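Below is a concrete protein record.
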Amino acid sequence: MFLAAALVIYSIFYISVGQKVAEFGQLRTIGASKKQIYKIVLKQGYMLAVPGILIGSIMGTIISYCLQSKGWSVFAFIVSLCGACLFGILLVYISVRKPAKIAANTSPISALKNPVGIVNYRTHKRHRITPVYLAKISFSRNRKKSLLTILSLGLCGVIFFLAASYQSSFNAESMARYWDMKYGDFKISIDLENESENLDALLQKEYFSDYVKRVGDIEGVSNIFTYATVPVDFSTDNDISDSTLMLGYNEKDLASLNAAVLSGNITDDTELVVSDPERIYDVYHWKPQIGDTVTFNFKNHSGKTITKAFKIGAITSSNDGMGGYIFRMPENMLKELAGYDCTYAIEIQAEAEYQEIIEQELKLLVSDNRDVRLQTLQDFIVEHQSDNRAGFTLAYAIAAILWIFAVINQINLTVTNLLSQKQEMGTLKSIGMTNKQLEQAFMMEGLFTTLIALLITAVVGIPGGYAIGIFLKNAGMSTGFVFPVVAFTLFAVAMFMLESLMTILLIHSWKKQSVIAIMRN
């Protein structure tokens, strides 16, 4: 976004300087120095920037207060205002510096020359002067302005495409299946976010021993999957210690665990599996190795604290399908050490025709127990859709802001080209070119710009969108990259319509003038 803002500011002042070559040349003829011209352009930049920065900062503060009034503070407002002002002024200085140098280097002779570059059509006598050819000449006469506009449009398109790829590739059901409910249609669970002592007490009530039996008797239940855990304190040989949860794994988890193994092997003799070594290093600055010993303290059924050391037998990546906690142990071993059934959740897989009946039975089963909750697959899907809606909105908001910047550049280029070529167009009209042909020429020029910007969007955006799709898939949030056909089509249509509308409106403002009036202007 800062790059887009810099491009817009630079483009505006570059175009402005180009239009005022004669004025700067005249100032030089009456004694103005290069340094004075340089300061004039810089001051113009600051005069425009300071009010804009203040207005933007105040509006941003109001919006942030409305969105998050509890987290708003006067101190944060003052710091943000100062930071925005300093950064904005620095950005303006960097962006305006080059156009200011161009203005300062304008020679007095330039005041006597026509600032508009009239094309000498004699050099093009081998080519037929058609609207398409005129558009090509006009497009290439000032490559720098055209490049700036194309870059800002292309940047806008890329950001928009990435946002659209994120939304189209995101799959709430995949996320629910990866993080919340891998196999079943219903889930009864204890909240793992309880404090350690509360969780210990809840687990030792062994609700799920009874639930597994009673759920198994419900008609239409095809399978029940269990999940076990124990709250533990751990310490390593290099004096790292913390509290966490030890997760139990069983046969249903072996496929995903083995697929994610980075080192070691998961066998019947494996005591401890450690997950996500990169995150472990980021948090604890500890690099777990196969054979390392980790000591755990946990309470058994009678409340006695047990201390036992286990050797790391395998290390897996974060994508092992068991969530965010770092230690795993065979479920039967975990239950044997704890001395009780430490199941914290069960998933119920149901036959399709019995789902509504089973849901009612499960609600009745847990209705008198406040310690557990029943959730369906659809509950998790809706939850993830809601959680990610803010991310989609933010991504599109950034793309919209960039689009506004890009449109400003596009308008600058279109207006400048039309104004600088009015005399030239008057000459062409005097030799027989019609208003329709002139309109087609300018339309073609705008379409060239839009087409190249869309090409940049596709060339850069598609690989970027594919990378986002792969990232989401690895994070369990997608099945892979999905091309945002609708969003990209609407964006392309909007760009073409905007360019066409701008050109038509601008041409309409002067095409009814006489040839003499146009050439005089």
